[in-house]
Amino acid sequence: MNKLGKYINDLMMVIRNTEETTISRTLALDELKRLSSDISSFIFQHIDDIETLPEFKEGTGEEAKKLYMEHWTCSICGKHTHEVNYDYLSGTDHLQCVLEKEQPELVENNERMDIIGQNGNDGLHYLENENQMELEL
After folding, report:
1. Half-sphere exposure of 67 (CA within 13 A, CB side)
2. Which site in 1, 70, 89, 110 is 20 to 30 Å from 82, CA atoms measured?
């Protein structure tokens, strides 16, 4: 038997079997979706209990600590990522760093939005240009 277990394998067999009734295949698929959701919920509920920064005990080699911190370092900005939530990481890099590297226009847009945020959104940055023409209705 493989790692998925007999129950899950049986559900998958029902779904793959085109000779099964549609309702049986649909029910099996719904059950797999429910199981997937339950497993995902369980993982997200308990992941922080397991995947936390290890407590280095006395006598732990400085080299081991150094290697751990080097592993959890953003290759783009060089800052440590060991305490950053996984939702904000791409591998061990900050998600924002990766996005800014792949899409530099995001940096420009963010800078422009920062200026608008500092100056207020009153439209004063849209000064009339002498080359503009007014439309008459």
Report:
1. 6
2. 110
Of 27, 23, 22, whose CA–CA distance to 10 is shortest? 27
Q: Which domain does 77 fall in, by range? A: 68-118
- What band does 127 get if pLDDT is binned at 50, 70 and 90? low
Domain count, the chain: 2
Nearest to 36 by CA among 10, 8, 60, 9: 8
pTM beyond 0.90: the answer is no
Q: How far apart are CA 16 and CA 29, in angstroms?
A: 10
In angstroms, the CA 124 to CA 128 distance is 10
Q: Are residues 72 and 112 in the same domain?
A: yes
